[in-house]
Amino acid sequence: MSRYARLAFTKNVRGVQEERGSAQAMARLLARDTEEPDRMGPDEADFIQARDGFYLASTGEDGWPYVQFRGGPPGFVHVLDSGTLAWVEVRGNRQYITAGNLRSDDRVSLFFMDYANPTRLKIFGRAETRDPAEFPELHERLSDLRTDGPLELLMLIRVEGLFWNCPKHITPRYSEPELAEALEPVRERMRMLAEENLELRERLQARD
């Protein structure tokens, strides 16, 4: 199955699964005895590159987790190959918490969400930052489509595990472009009704 489960289902996690009665159901996810990282296929690549944002979690040297949102135009997260994601890091609030956390622990977790079509993809990976000046070819490739703002770093994620999560409890939400497309027929109908209404008013006034 997925190596994601082998990374996520620690001894304590399996203990809780036993207590709560889900251990047998979860055992199938541990059936594949391998240390080889999961690989992204066309479905994962298409899903990731269609997203306009995701959540990124890291852990500091004191053990506290940190989660932040990364956003940009669809496609700003580039799938370089079946095992590597990358994007351009731009200047934000200049706290640099994630960048600092990676100096002590390169392990990260990413959540890619499609709220409009309740779907989520979870990824475990190892992150590294690169200086754009030292990797001009990578810089050029990642800058083809990226978040607006002053460029600071290039972020690479080596995928360790991935898992398509259950859509249960994902509340559907829609972005402005998604709503604009869906509402266009309604807007067109309203324009037609407005024109008809104006025409009828003009006819009534002409009778008077």
UniProtKB/TrEMBL annotation:
Gene3D superfamilies (alphabetical): Electron Transport, Fmn-binding Protein, Chain A
Pyridoxamine 5'-phosphate oxidase N-terminal domain boundaries: 45-141
Origin: domain of life: Bacteria
Protein name: Pyridoxamine 5-phosphate oxidase
